[in-house]
Design a protein that fits this description.
It is built from 7 helices and no strands. By secondary structure, it is mainly alpha-helical. Helix 2 packs across helix 5, helix 3 runs antiparallel to helix 4 and helix 3 runs antiparallel to helix 7. The longest helix is centred in the N-terminal third of the chain and has 29 residues. The model has no long low-confidence stretch (mean pLDDT 95). It binds fe (ii) ion (2 copies). The site of one fe (ii) ion has 6 residues, from helix 2, helix 3 and helix 4.
């Protein structure tokens, strides 16, 4: 999953490598990949950790879910530079919560114990998720701003293009 963070960072960089033009093939791969990645965390990892903790969610779970909500909302409208910047801002504080010796992935691995290999297999073999169509309306952008604010991010980072 940490390697997937790097792969996704690379796709977002590739999409915005040329300042004049967004590479939509890379962006679509990024969008599809990030939605799948978030789905694996929300549908497999976090529920598993909660179950193994006797029904008690990981302390970080609520914050991760809010970040995921903000990220998913940013993937609904067509990409712009300010949307890419907001995604990068969130990922740069979100991914460290999951990575490393004290991160959520390590916590899940420790909780899973001997089951860890089977869980990893489940994550690796998961199918692609169907991705919702892109939508550009003022209402969508209001939703993005609300999701950013709920997760504790400054929604005005979307303002300067
Ligand atoms: Fe995550
Ligand atoms: Fe992640």
């Amino acid at each position: 999953m940490e390697a997937d963070h790097k792969r996704l960072d690379g796709l977002l960089d590739a999409a915005f490598a040329d300042s004049e033009h967004i590479d939509m093939a890379s962006y679509d791969q990024f969008r599809q990949g990030l939605l799948k990645h978030i789905g694996l965390e929300e549908k497999i990892l976090l529920p598993l950790a909660q179950k193994l903790r006797g029904g008690e969610p990981l302390p970080m779970a609520a914050k991760l879910r809010l970040d995921h909500g903000a990220l998913a909302s940013l993937l609904v409208p067509a990409p712009t530079k300010s949307i890419a910047r907001a995604i990068r801002t969130i990922l740069s504080s979100h991914n460290p919560l999951e990575e490393g010796p004290n991160g959520v992935y390590e916590q899940c691995k420790n909780l899973a114990g001997e089951e860890a290999a089977r869980v990893l297999e489940e994550l690796v073999s998961a199918k692609d998720v169907p991705v919702a169509t892109r939508l550009d309306t003022p209402k969508v952008m209001q939703g993005v701003r609300r999701a950013l604010a709920r997760a504790g991010f400054d929604e005005t980072m979307l303002d300067d293009e």
